[in-house]
From TrEMBL:
The Rieske protein is a high potential 2Fe-2S protein. InterPro entries: Rieske_2Fe-2S, Rieske_2Fe-2S_sf, Rieske_Fe-S_prot, Rieske_Fe-S_prot_C, TAT_signal, TAT_signal_bac_arc, Ubiq_cytC_Rdtase_Fe-S_su_TAT, Ubiquinol_cyt_c_Rdtase_Fe-S-su. It is found in: Cell membrane. This is Ubiquinol-cytochrome c reductase iron-sulfur subunit. Component of the ubiquinol-cytochrome c reductase complex (complex III or cytochrome b-c1 complex), which is a respiratory chain that generates an electrochemical potential coupled to ATP synthesis. Keywords: 2Fe-2S, Cell membrane, Disulfide bond, Electron transport, Iron, Iron-sulfur, Membrane, Metal-binding, Translocase, Transmembrane, Transmembrane helix, Transport. It comes from Caulobacter rhizosphaerae. The chain crosses the membrane at residues 23-44. It catalyses: a quinol + 2 Fe(III)-[cytochrome c](out) = a quinone + 2 Fe(II)-[cytochrome c](out) + 2 H(+)(out).
Amino acid sequence: MADTAVGAKTDPAHGEDPSRRDFIYIATMAVAAGGAAAIAWPFIDQMNPSADTRALASIEFDVTKVPEGQQVVVKWRGKPLFVRNRTKAEIAKAVADDGASMKDPEKDSARVKPGKSQWLIVGGNCTHLGCVPTFGGGEYGGWFCPCHGSVYDTSGRIRKGPAPKNLVVPEYAFLSDTKVKIG
């Protein structure tokens, strides 16, 4: 059944071409959509991190401050980060252990940048409960977590203890031979 009343006439010019009324509907909808976006934007924008948080998102570090065989603890995003200048013996031991049985197998070359194998940058928190491990403990020559006995090798890979994962390697890139950007 048709909805038109008996005797009603349809305007052939009004039925297919947009009229003034259609233009007003479209304009009103466009203004309403723009107004809704203008009201919603501050709520969406407030979810972005603040400027001081973004400023701490990445740090630059001069690696010349770290002598061979030593490490520096850098604070990044409120947590410790180990920047270690490994000796040739430490690197050789880490590479030799690439095929050893590990909980979280990962090659040493995957944990360092190509051509910069002496620089190991890892998170300074044990992956078990977040304690700060110390270097030089344990039978693998790497880090030892005194809280629950997790032992990491010279590449920061978990070798023994309750920790389930290797020490975290953050995202980083060398800006030059002496400067690294972390984050």
